[in-house]
């Protein structure tokens, strides 16, 4: 019978008060500046509830400074923390998730340690914070507030308790993962990845409306235009009211509306009664605008900024080449116990499959592969390409 791990229910030194004034923030920065070593950092958003991905709460912990909880929505500019931290390492679980919202508040790291990515490089199957805490510290974390509305004020005491625990475990987890990476001879891999993450920026889409779920089902350019205009109207409405766009109308409803043949805002309200008359009218005007576009004004079926690479291979040949390269990379990933998408981004492997007579190392570097990825992947990819038919 498996013994259940103990639940980490409360922070070791209690739940600190929420810092929500300039004076308290200055005092917190001074405490952190006098702390030592890495800084554990976490952020809580209100994804699916509020517009955008901004941080409503930022949690910090540093040796000799303790845990500090910041009301980042009130404080807004957190850039003084950069000076308080100096050049010391930031420890974050999933940098790609949290760094953008921290950057929005003016925070800029000089060194990073991503505990989620470290666990993935080690080949761990489960790499969420709770799973990593169980494996490294032998404790369970309660995650019942992970999807809470962190824009709520005042924040309940139990939510602050949860938030404080997330950063309390990060520093000891970091030390254990660091040792494990060294023992596995993977520390250099992780170090290069962490350095690369310093410049991380969320992917920018020239036509973000094309990310609408279900859009690919539409074949008519007129219907695609309707989705574009409806998406734009919905996004403006969501931004103005600070709610997630899906709370105005879900993606599947946008697509359904684009395919429908409505004649007035009343028709929209009849199908989606949760919409106000004003919102229904705004969406109908967007719908009607799309129906009045000329052929030249209609959007293309494919993304406007999509890059079409010249290749001497047919579509079928490319598909076969990519399959062979992916199979070779899967074997290499298994050999090193590193997920294939960490070993080398799938998009790079796919792009390489369309190339003829290419210098593999130069191609990988040009696509942003790190040195450790090039050293491991290039020989395997080169040998695989040599076995494939030439153009």
Protein architecture, described:
By secondary structure, this protein is of the alpha/beta class. It folds into three domains: 7-197, Nucleotidyltransferase, domain 5 (2-Layer Sandwich); 208-297, HRDC domain (DNA polymerase, domain 1); 315-386, HRDC domain (DNA polymerase, domain 1), CATH 1.10.150.80. 51% of the residues lie in helices and 9% in strands. The chain is built from 19 helices and eight strands. The strands form two sheets. The protein has a six-stranded mixed beta sheet, sandwiched between helices. The protein has a two-stranded parallel ribbon with strand order 1-8. Helix 5 (115-121) runs parallel beside helix 8 (170-183) and helix 10 packs antiparallel against helix 14 (277-291). The longest helix has 22 residues, at 315-336.
From the structure provided, what is the oligomeric state, counting identical versus distinct chains? single chain
Shape: flat
Under CATH, the topology of the largest domain is which? Nucleotidyltransferase, domain 5
Order of helices and strands: EEHEEEHHEHEHHEHHHHHHHHHHHHH
Number of helices: 19
Low-confidence stretches: none
The CATH class of the largest domain is Alpha Beta
Biggest beta sheet summary: 6 strands, mixed
Strand pairing plus helix content: what structural class? alpha/beta
What Rg do the Cα atoms give?
Answer: 25 Å
Mean pLDDT: 95
Strand order of the largest sheet: 2-5-4-3-6-7
Distance between the termini: 60 Å
């Amino acid at each position: 019978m498996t013994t259940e791990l103990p639940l980490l229910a409360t922070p070791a030194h209690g739940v600190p008060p929420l810092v929500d004034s300039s004076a308290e923030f200055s005092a917190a920065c001074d405490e952190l500046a006098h702390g030592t070593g890495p800084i554990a950092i976490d952020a809580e958003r209100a994804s699916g509830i509020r517009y955008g991905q901004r941080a409503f709460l930022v949690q910090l912990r540093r040796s000799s400074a303790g845990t500090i909880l910041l009301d980042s929505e009130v404080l807004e500019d957190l850039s003084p923390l950069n000076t308080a931290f100096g050049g010391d390492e930031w420890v974050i679980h999933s940098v790609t998730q949290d760094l953008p919202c921290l950057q929005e508040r003016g925070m800029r790291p000089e060194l990073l340690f991503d505990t989620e990515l470290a666990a993935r490089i080690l080949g761990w199957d489960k790499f969420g914070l709770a799973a990593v805490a169980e494996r490294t510290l032998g404790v369970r974390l309660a995650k019942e507030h992970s999807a809470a509305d962190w824009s709520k004020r005042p924040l309940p005491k139990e939510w602050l308790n949860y938030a404080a625990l997330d950063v309390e475990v990060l520093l000891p987890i970091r030390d254990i993962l660091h040792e494990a990476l060294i023992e596995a001879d993977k520390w250099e891999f992780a170090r290069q990845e962490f350095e690369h993450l310093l410049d991380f920026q969320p992917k920018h889409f020239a036509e973000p409306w094309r990310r609408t779920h279900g859009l690919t089902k539409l074949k008519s350019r007129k219907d695609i235009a309707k989705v574009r205009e409806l998406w734009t109207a919905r996004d403006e409405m969501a931004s103005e009211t600070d709610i997630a766009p899906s709370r105005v109308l879900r993606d599947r409803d946008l697509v359904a509306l684009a395919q429908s043949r409505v004649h007035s805002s009343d028709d929209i309200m009849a199908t989606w009664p949760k919409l106000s008359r004003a919102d229904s009218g705004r969406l109908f005007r967007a719908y009607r605008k799309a129906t009045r576009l000329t052929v030249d004004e209609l959007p293309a079926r494919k993304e406007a900024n999509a890059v079409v690479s010249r290749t001497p291979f047919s579509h079928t040949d490319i598909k076969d080449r990519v399959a062979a390269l992916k199979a070779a990379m899967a074997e290499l990933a298994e050999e090193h116990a590193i997920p294939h998408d960490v070993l080398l981004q799938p998009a790079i492997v796919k792009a390489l499959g369309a190339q003829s007579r290419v210098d593999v190392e130069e191609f990988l570097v040009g696509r942003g592969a790190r040195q450790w990825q090039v050293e491991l992947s290039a020989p395997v990819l080169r040998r695989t390409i040599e076995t494939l038919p030439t153009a």
